Amino acid sequence: MAQINPSILSADFARLAEEATAVEGADWLHVDVMDNHFVPNLTLGVPIVESLSRATETPLDCHLMIEDPDRWAPQYVEAGAGSVTFHVEAAAAPVRLAREIRAKGARASMALKPATPIEPYEDLLPELDMLLIMTVEPGFGGQAFLDIMLPKIRRTRELISKHGLELWLQVDGGVSESTIERCAEAGADVFVAGSAVYGANDPAEAVRALRTKADGTIASAAWACNH
């Protein structure tokens, strides 16, 4: 079934602890870490993740949009993240990094920017717990969903099925009630939603509405029926 991960990039940074608890029922809290080098934006780092991990029972899903994740990613596990995503475009040794993240006790995830194809990384998939397909260019929230990513999501799901992997497939960028069903039909089962949740009058209800739409689509999706 679907997992809904609200992104605190769209939350009120002055009230992060409250915003974390406002999304009751979420599976994970998605934390966007940006360094103003890999992407042209600067957000937060290890100290905020440490504080958030103490402020919420919801596990933290840290998405590192940073240079040199080989050096920094393990620190986010130590800070309390339950899942750590690094960008393959930035990693020097993605297999070694994924293994280190797992060895420290977190789920290892790898992200691909829109222009990065999945096929060259097919052999890496067994080393991962989740793969993230960006459906916008990383760096800023509130962007429009890129429909041209749907075939890539389908191809990724086919590779996961081909190898018989229990690998979560996450999408991030422009996910809303109007786009989540297309993502789910294509093969995604983990959905990051920022403004669609925190821009709503009732963030917890927005999470429930997104889950209902995604679950309904997954239940009848060809990829899920063959799983």
UniProtKB/TrEMBL annotation:
Task: Write one Gene Ontology MF term.
Answer: D-ribulose-phosphate 3-epimerase activity
UniProt KW Iron keyword: no
The protein's annotated catalytic reaction(s) are:
D-ribulose 5-phosphate = D-xylulose 5-phosphate
Positions bound to a divalent metal cation: H30, D32, H63, D172
What is the enzyme's class at the highest EC level?
Answer: isomerase
Per the entry, which co-factors are needed?
Fe(2+); Mn(2+); Zn(2+); Co(2+)
In terms of domain of life, where is this protein from? Bacteria
Q: Which family does it belong to?
A: Belongs to the ribulose-phosphate 3-epimerase family.
Q: What is this protein called?
A: Ribulose-phosphate 3-epimerase
Q: Which gene encodes it?
A: rpe
